Here is the input.
Amino acid sequence: MNARIRRYLINISRNQTGTVSYLTLVQEAELGLNLDVSHEKSRLNEILAEISDTEHAAGRPILSCLVKVEGSKGQGDSFFKLCERMGMGTWRELKQNPEFLPSLRQECRAFWRNDENFNSFS
Here is the structure.
């Protein structure tokens, strides 16, 4: 499932300008998860964190920045806590910084729209 989500998010990064909701991710990547069931939603969060950790460790942008939490300004606290664990700053400061999330998304798109990066790492 991790590989399927990663491929889907790379394609979103390469081919779209917006973000993707949890529900759209589940439906379009055909994950078969029910987000109304708390442990299934938690599992999706864990998978997104695993993918982000792997990408970050490899020096690539974190793909989970493209997944938007419905009804929020973009990301929940767990995303910013993940970024804090990666050494990007304190999660509260990152959440309050209006430039942080857009810059992550821009970096992600620039990386994956580069054909050399796409061909090497996708």
The radius of gyration is 14 Å.
